[in-house]
Amino acid sequence: MVLSSALPENHYASDSSLHSTFASRYVQDSLPRFRMPEKQIAKEAAYQIISDELMLDGNPRLNLASFVTTWMEPEVDKLILQSLNKNYIDMDEYPITTELQDRCVNMIARLFNAPLKDGEQAVGAGTVGSSEAIMLAGLAFKRKWQNKRKAEGKPYDKPNIVTGANVQVCWEKFARYFEVELKDVKLQEGYYVMDPEKAVELVDENTICVCAILGSTYNGEFEDVKRLNELLEAKNSKTGWDTPIHVDAASGGFIAPFLYPELEWDFRLSCVRSINVSGHKYGLVYAGVGWVVWKSKSDLPEELIFHVNYLGADQPTFTLNFSKGASQIIAQYYQLIRLGFEGYKSIMENCRSNAKVLCDGIRSTGRFDILSKDVGVPVVAFCLKDRSKHDEYEIAENLRRYGWIVPAYTMAPDAQHISLLRVVVREDFSCTLAQRLVNDIHKVLEYLDARPPRLVEAVAAAITHQEPELSSEIVPEGIKISAILNETILGLKSPRRLGSFKTNGVC
Amino acid sequence: MLTHASENVGTIQPVFGSRYMVSPIPRFELPEEMMSKDAAYQIVHDELLLDGNPRLNLASFVCTWMEPECEKLILEALSKNFIDFDEYPATHDIQDRCVNMIARLFHAPLAQNEQAVGTSTVGSSEAIMLAGLAMKRKWQQKMRQAGKPYDKPNMVAGSNVQVCWEKFARYFEVELRQVNLRDGCYVMDPEEAVKLVDENTILVCAILGSTYTGEFEDVKLLNQLLLENNQKTGWDTPIHVDAASGGFIAPFLYPELEWDFRLPLVRSINVSGHKYGLVYAGVGWVIWRSKAELPEELIFHINYLGAIQPTFTLNFSRGSSHVIAQYYQFIRLGIEGYTLIMKNCQDNAQHLAQKLKETGMFNIISKEIGVPVVTYSLIKKDRKLYFTEHDVADRMRQYGWIIPAYTMAPNLEHMHVLRVVVREDFSNSQVVKFVRDTKKVMDFLNNEESVSSTLCAPTQDQGIHSPLDHGYHSDGHPQVKHEQLHPQINHEQPKKTIKEKWKNFHWRKSTEARVTEARATQPKKIKSSTGGHFGGRVC
């Protein structure tokens, strides 16, 4: 009997259903990258191919760079899955989802002490994230200011906005896309948030708002909104302007009310007209939900609102996005009623105490300065005391080998010579993980100490190769290097090291 | 004594035996205490039962069904933040591949293996704002260079555009010049559009798949007219194609149709991944013809893993599952799969249109060529109907179908239409069921009409007539009819009261009242504020 070695032409097609995924033809071809493929492939194969490729992404849970929630209870996962095919904007078809959004807005507004009567609907909206929320808030301020100037018969073509240089990149985006000048208060060494005095100095009659950050991106510190409010009130009463405050509480909005209820930063202050908060940060929902609330209806110009009439009731909407999934809103409502004040409080307390464990651990190495404050968002920002041999970037790179994603950044303009490592302590970062991270930092330090500065090493080798006469400056064995050369080499910066917070897309 | 121990809910105590089920749910204030997760899940889940069923929502283009494999991928990626390029490079690479595939599908002039210019967005709304912003900035730069004023930009579109163009115009301070529709022509007339173009026009927007009828606008003719106009005047007015719904239809069903980057003035195109791109709500795409169309100053550079990554988005943090799901669909279906699905949609749409036409009660307004939607209205002939399309929609809801009725665009506000979007998951057997239920509804309404017109006869003087009024009770006192319908009515009551009661009861429900009310409120609420107006919330 002769065994045929040639496979029939339709070999794969004929019994493709029998093939295990990895035996199918699909794993032989490279994935289409530029053009849509001509033919279909089996759904199991498509799933497996994509899922396998995504293995190369970092593990979200070990991503300590981001505030964004990476863990939720399985019950929520179920709710999310069930509502994946619901379109949030279809208020007519999904009135309950819309109502859940309204309830979330109500709860958040009251959490921020908005002056509301019992049973009164708060003014606010669910968004895709703080970015959309900020643009909506900024737009409302801009339009309000324009209307005022128009009514006064004054020019209204040069609006500006005052912020600290530590703001998130989306404020810059807002400024550029909506044609508003961004005046930023520069930071200085040792003081990494906006100085209220300097901010108020920058305010003029064209200032549409001053933005204060509750939880600075760099070190989690709260800006002194109360002081800003006082100063601005004084200035407003002197000049007759009515410059408002917006609080960007993207990360701190769900921290301060639970851990520091006495701290006045919200609608208790007279100039604060709107606040944004990220539901997907300490609101404890997966990426894709933010909130913006206004103090009252009068802070939101009517002309920006689009009215949708659903089931006979008028539903005002103010969004940049239109169709989007409804699951994140539903998940937020779940968290609010599931956890309540008590649950949020104990989670935030846990985060704070784990941040403290980590902070103490890092301090105990004796090699780092801690830049974050005790009061603030639970992040630990730290930088090397001695950067002469190795820098924070090398630590970050080496921590990745242990699985940790702890990026290093340079500070904002004016303090750019400082680079730092930042660990965000989320609810799912337990004490055990904190201790393990400290251990791994120890190991990385030991490893790095045993090695010559990498850049120095490379450059020294290159120099000895190309410029033999310079080799006298370099002692080959231990790669000791003359002080002058060392400084020059360390002064060289690779493009990566220029990345500051803003250009790295920290969130 | 009975106690509600919160710790035990779900483990020992049944959820429906817990105290959470008897206390009111928090609506305004964050509750003080925690609630067991089972109870929270059940409460939220059960309340959502009252939402419409997305699969039966025939009002929306937005995809409501995906393969379970893809749902698995989505679930796995829920915790990934799309904007974290540094941490999730594979996800970002997948986005670039989708952009490449779509750009090539739309015939962008690209060299082999050249990276296309485009980005994923949350939906077409963000995509449109980005595209509009790019064109606005480009125009500003040009005017500034020419030393001309650049504070009065405008754009031209048909009045059938989606509401987000109006949003773009209002939020980014651009004047929106609309070409009005007219009877029989429900899309933008290219000639009229070009007439509205002037030096300050940043773009002309053409819609591939009009919201009203699914019809494709004639982009080719627009391109030609605009080219001539540009040549004559020396301006360089570009075209943006809003292919939100048609972008994944035309390339598969009508590959010969020229509407995309094959036309020289088409500089950018947006398409909704969550419509015929077959992904759940939350993904859109915008593609530019080339780098030159995207002003550098709008791009933010993000530095990741040593490489500089340009980004242009309005949103920042968001989930990455939808982008992954889009890529799944592209490689899973390929051109073959998309073509098969779109063909099925088209067949089912034609079948539905045919069946509805056969009932003899509806006019079909949608065209055969276009996005697979069926838009239809009641045949009025010469008799006056006592119900409208809105009542048909209302009654259909009782059978579970969600088909809203809309009034047409400005200038055609007298027209009311019903629209069914045929999505991939709307199968032929559903078409049959839908037609059957429509017939039932029409029978009911026709029947109700005769009854109510009979009973409302005294209101003749208000201008309401029915052919049935005559002959039966020309005296205007239809008491006989009452007794037949409601034998239990107390005969001793003064007849007038019965009549009044019955009339009021019926009158309240009667559509004529609703229609009158709707008509009274509608003129105030134009497109943006719609009582069931197309532009308001159709997606």
Short characterization:
Chain A: One of its GO terms (biological process) is L-glutamate catabolic process. Chain A is α/β, with parallel strands linked by helices and 507 residues long.
Structure description:
The complex is a heterodimer of chains A (507) and B (539). By secondary structure, chain A is α/β, with parallel strands linked by helices. Chain A has four domains: 47 residues, no CATH class; 259 residues, Type I PLP-dependent aspartate aminotransferase-like (Major domain) (Aspartate Aminotransferase, domain 2); 91 residues, Aspartate Aminotransferase, domain 1, CATH 3.90.1150.160; 44 residues, no CATH class. In chain A, the strands form four sheets. Chain A has a seven-stranded mixed sheet, with helices on both faces. Chain B has 539 residues and is α/β, with parallel strands linked by helices. Chain B folds into four domains: 49 residues, no CATH class; 258 residues, Type I PLP-dependent aspartate aminotransferase-like (Major domain) (Aspartate Aminotransferase, domain 2, 3-Layer(aba) Sandwich); 106 residues, Aspartate Aminotransferase, domain 1 (Alpha-Beta Complex), CATH 3.90.1150.160; 57 residues, no CATH class. In chain B, strands 1-7-6-5-4-2-3 form a seven-stranded mixed sheet, sandwiched between helices. In chain B, strands 10-11-13-12 form a four-stranded antiparallel sheet. Chains A and B meet through helix 2, helix 3, helix 4, helix 5 and helix 6 of A and helix 1, helix 2, helix 3, helix 4 and helix 5 of B.
